[in-house]
Specification:
Blueprint: E1 7-18, E2 21-33, E3 38-42, H1 49-56, E4 64-69, E5 72-73, H2 79-89, E6 90-94, H3 105-114, H4 120-133, H5 149-161, E7 167-171, H6 179-196, E8 199-204, H7 207-210, E9 215-220, E10 223-229
Helix pairs in contact: 3-4, 3-5, 4-5, 5-6
Length: 231
């Protein structure tokens, strides 16, 4: 696609032990992603999309081949180096929100910044900016149990975006939402993609998400079936 992709995978293979043998989850994946893409890994359960997303996010490592993420080879990173990559450069959005119920919306969004070298006043501004992006400045002192599912997912997006990561990885981010909330969430992510040039990579089989993607990579049985760029 370009000479300077920010993510590449080369002959990526992932095996998992299964009984006395092994399960081949990824079967030689070759991909490139450029800065600012709004792309999705699409496929049914068991197609390998979440496994691939986890390797790109340095949450897992390849069995063979390599994933280069922002210039770093995932297979060669120590646990500490992988954690540093996630902490500084990547944002994650999961279907289960993963919010801390006993903490306020502000505190949940602030959490990733506590691991980085920001002053309290810098954190304050960054959190409020992120909450403004997702339209939740009025919920700053609320706690997750008092929020709707759509609001919880918007908090999760704010938390993923607060440090302005280069890449956001979203695994079935609308799975627990109704259609109206799903579209609001996707419009928010599309806006952040355009305004901040953040690269978004989804793992999904949700038609609502698929309709927003600018690039669709279809996985079947651990292999790329087709890769479509939407004009």
């Amino acid at each position: 696609m370009t000479n300077n992709p920010i993510i590449t995978t080369e002959k990526l293979i992932k095996k998992f032990p299964m009984g006395k043998g092994e399960f081949l989850a990824l079967k030689g994946i070759d991909l490139e992603f450029n800065e600012g893409e709004f792309a999705g890994l699409i496929g049914p359960s068991g197609s390998g999309k979440t496994t691939l997303l986890n390797i790109i996010g340095s949450l897992d490592t390849p069995s063979e081949g390599e994933a280069m993420v922002l210039g770093q080879p995932v297979s060669q990173l120590t646990a500490r180096q992988a954690a540093q990559l996630r902490k500084e450069k990547l944002g994650f959005i999961f279907q289960s929100y993963n919010l801390l119920a006993v903490h306020t919306v502000f505190e949940n969004v602030e959490f990733p910044l506590l691991l980085l070298k920001y002053t309290p006043s810098q954190r304050q501004k960054m959190v409020m900016d992120a909450l403004e992006w997702v339209g939740l400045t009025d919920k700053v002192n609320s706690k997750p149990p008092a929020l709707s599912g759509g609001e919880c997912q918007r908090v999760a997006i704010a938390r993923a975006m607060v440090k302005k990561p280069m890449v956001v990885l979203a695994d079935e981010p609308t799975a627990n939402l109704d259609a109206a909330n799903s579209h609001n969430i996707l419009k928010t992510m599309e806006m952040l993609n355009k305004e901040l040039k953040t690269t978004f990579l989804f793992a999904t089989h949700d038609e609502k998400v698929i309709s927003y993607l600018h690039r669709k990579i279809f996985l079947i049985d651990g292999k790329i079936d087709r890769d479509e760029l939407i004009k």
